[in-house]
Every structure is written in C-alpha cells, then in structure tokens.
Specification:
268 residues; mainly alpha; rod-shaped; protein dimerization activity; DNA-binding
C-alpha cells in the first residue's frame, strides 16, 4: 500500500527548521547547478533565510546579467500584454523590484571586493571564490589576447622596417657603384694637378738655386781708387763731354791691392 501525499506545513521546532533549511538549500543549489550544466541553461537562484541571510547561485553568466535579462523580459512582456494605464499603476511595484535589484547588486559588489564577508558560510565563500577565479581567468585570457595582438603588430612593423632597410641598402649600393668611377677619375685628376704643381715648384727652386750659385761663389770685385793726376802736356777732357773716363791699367788695378811699402819697392 503506497504512501499518501505528505502535507507541507511550517516546522515548529526551530532547530529542526534550521537543519531542514540547510539540507534543502544545499539540495536546491545542487539541482540548480545540475540543470545549468546538463541543459546549458542560465540559472539564477536567490534564497533569503528567516534571519535575512542571502544565498544565491548563478550559472556561467553573472547574477547581474541574468537579473537584467529577466527584468527586461518581464518588462517587455508586461508592456505588450497590459495596457499603459495598468503599467502606470504598477510603477510602485516596479520601483520595489528595481530597489531590490540595486541592493542585491551593491551587496554582491561589496562581497567581490572582500567586504561584508562575516555573514557568509564556508559554502558561500567557496562559491564566491569560484566566481572570482572565473573572473580572473577571463581577465587573464583577455590580457593575453591583447598581448599577442600587440606582439603580432610589432612583428609586422619589424618586417616592414626590414623590407624598407633592404630597399634603401640596394639603392645606396647602386648609387655608390654609379658614383665610384667619377670619384676615381676626379681623384686621378687631382693627383695629376698636384703632381704638376709640385714639379713646377721643384723646377723653380732649382732655377733659383742655379742662378744664385755664380754670384755667391765669385768674390766681390774691389774698385780701384782714382789714379793720382800727373802733369802732362795733354789736355784733360772736360767733364760732361759724354765720353767715358780712361780706365786704370791692369797693373794699376793690381797694384791698388798691394800695400804701400810694396808699391815703393816695385817703382824703384
């Protein structure tokens, strides 16, 4: 004989009620996790105990995203099904829902920042840790993606600069090959010109040395003194007649170099 339906009612014993709440809560969270994994569904679960403690679960999407999606869906559905007058009458309810949503988001944000963790159980702390690890993993993945893109962009720039460098090197080599013969010809002309200048200077110096050698080697001629005038019958030519004066004889020129006592001996 099968068991009949069990009537559900509030458990009067406070301890039994707390134990039953903990067991059913864990089972509910487990079922929510299973349905999110097996059916690939977005699941959000929010439970408040009699003391006002919050217990929540969200699938891969964040709790804020699921609540926003639910709010948008219910608001759009109500806007279609209900007339505008009824929508205006429900503004009070809408405000209460939005206020609850804001409070939940603010509390979740504070918990993610490490605040107000005293009221959380070990299970809730583990769940919060998993959420933080998932967020950190997503952030690291995004950071690595940006780093890879930046490295790839730098590699492309490096390749482009190498190509430009090769083109400039080829152009420079070609220009050097074209200019080199002209430079060699110009340098040869300069060397020839310099050589001719040096030869001209050497020849000039040689000519000057050859012209200066006789004058330096020959002794300076000594002019003979004017001869003593002698009395003779011949008339002396007047000065300024235009004729050159009589030159002294070689003997006189030679005697002019002798001392006086030798001159006396020679005359005698």
């Amino acid at each position: 004989m099968g068991r009949g339906p069990v009537q559900l009612r509030r458990i009067e014993n406070k301890i039994n009620r707390q134990v039953t709440f903990s067991k059913r809560r864990n089972g509910l969270l487990k079922k929510a996790h299973e349905i999110s994994v097996l059916c690939d569904a977005d699941v959000a679960l929010i439970v408040f105990s009699t003391k006002g403690k919050l217990y929540e679960f969200s699938s891969h999407s964040s709790m804020e995203g699921i609540l926003e999606r639910y709010q948008r869906y219910s608001f759009d559905e109500r806007a279609v099904l209900e007339p505008n007058t009824e929508g205006q009458e429900n503004w009070g309810d809408e405000y209460g829902i939005l206020k609850s949503k804001l409070d939940a988001l603010q509390k979740s944000q504070r918990q993610l920042l490490g605040e107000q963790l005293d009221t959380l159980t070990t299970k809730e702390l583990q769940q919060l840790e998993h959420q933080l690890e998932y967020s950190l993993k997503h952030i690291r993945s995004k950071k690595n993606q940006l780093l890879f893109e930046s490295i790839s962009e730098l590699q492309k720039k490096e390749k482009s600069l190498k190509n430009q460098n090769n083109v400039l090197q080829k152009f420079t080599t070609k220009a050097v090959l074209e200019v080199k013969p002209f430079c060699l010809h110009s340098s040869e002309q300069l060397m020839e010109t310099e050589k001719e200048k040096n030869n001209a200077i050497i020849n000039t110096n040689r000519e000057e040395q050859n012209g200066a050698t006789p004058s330096t080697s020959s002794p300076t001629p000594v002019t003979a003194p004017d001869p003593i005038p002698t009395t003779n019958n011949s008339q002396s030519q007047p000065r300024g007649s235009g004729e050159s004066e009589a030159q002294p004889s070689p003997a006189q020129a030679g005697n002019s170099k002798l001392p006086p006592w030798m001159l006396r001996t020679s005359h005698t």
